[in-house]
Amino acid sequence: MAAPTPTPRKFLGRLSLPERTFVADALRAETVGGVLLLVAAIAAIIWANTPLQDSYESTRGFHIGPASLGLDLSLQHWAADGLLAVFFFVAGIELKRELVAGELRDPKAAALPVIAAICGMAAPAGVYVLVNTLGDGSLDGWAVPTATDIAFALAVLAVIGTSLPSALRAFLLTLAVVDDLFAILIIAVFFTKEIDFTALGGAAVGLAVFWLLLRKGVRGWYLYIPLALVIWGLMYNSGVHATIAGVAMGLMLRCTRHEGETHSPGEHIEHLVRPLSAGLAVPLFALFSAGVSVSGRALTDVFTRPETLGVVLGLVVGKTIGIFGGTWLAARFTRAELNEDLAWPDVLAVASLAGIGFTVSLLIGELAFAEDPGLADEVKAAVLLGSLIAAVLAAILLKLRDRKYRALTTEEERDDDLDGIPDIYELDNPEYHLRMAAIYEKKAAEHRRMAEVTAGAGKDGDSPA
Prior knowledge:
- Helices cover 71% and strands 1% of the residues.
- The protein is an all-alpha fold.
- It contains 17 helices and 2 strands.
- The chain folds into 2 domains: 24-64 and 71-191 and 241-412, Na+/H+ antiporter like domain (Na+/H+ antiporter like fold, Up-down Bundle); 423-459.
- β1 and β2 form a beta hairpin.
């Protein structure tokens, strides 16, 4: 019987099920999401600084969408207001999970990262305000350096900190979730100029229906996706930033497991949507937002103009001082305690890592200087440069800590008596000390016999060899 003829593979055709599963799982990893974000940002900078610059501006400025619904938006607008709603939807689920089943559920455990996150947003804002007050700059961008990009930060931690304690990642994740919450509140409160209460009321009704369907256990993507699009469109037309709709819907999902459930609905939906967020939404936002001039003059202006200098110092200095100082103050003057697996140099490394602003900082920069596109681009350049400096400094600190923890791990895994149990777990066991004494006595006896043989050979005139 002739072997079946393999089906020819179509270019850009549908992937097989194993390939689709592999790609989706890869996109759920922080390292892959961070790399895609970085690649998109680099592509945007290259595109915007080559002879193809005009095509970049015309592409991101291309308008599409139904004007009758108030949605005739540029591609850059769709990326910032539409695709980022998916990113904030996932952030809302993460926040809900932390509130009901994670670190934020226990007030005592949550106190430290919450205080650290608040200080880690207040200090950068204070640095920005101070620089711009002294330099007579605009205070409109005070919120730009307050945000942390969790995808980039976790990607750096995953690549550099292979031997770091898992408590460090948990601390960073909880810190970033709280950071996202306050960033959402900042966007909703400070960057909403005019409110259309009719559209806002419609969005509220849509959210109520969304919640009721979830409460009743109704299933079917064909119900939820059209409803989510309606809620998003009404929220956009209300004047409140449309990403708030994504956060609100994410917070409504149930993230606790009922009896017999392997995963909660929130966990299941996050598992499905995260590849879309990490692989499409965030990279496209970076592609259409990170394209700024990187000429020598532009980089010089970053350190001479108060608005851009405030952003860089806020991310690099303000974040580090705020998070480290807030954590220390909380541990010193409240009942909150630092995880016993962490040391203060670890907190310092994470504090510097949180200076990677990127996604949300770029978004806030666009909102803060929407009426001055030139300054908005300079602020974006400052965000990119500040995030890069913070990432390099954090990578150095994390590498030093990783090396120390790797040495500790090696010491913990020592098994000199070859009994299958690391020696460090047997230090208080008398039998361990007896076995070690016997091993050392055996080695000492072997050395004495070798010495006697060597001495005897020398007396007979033979070479010890």
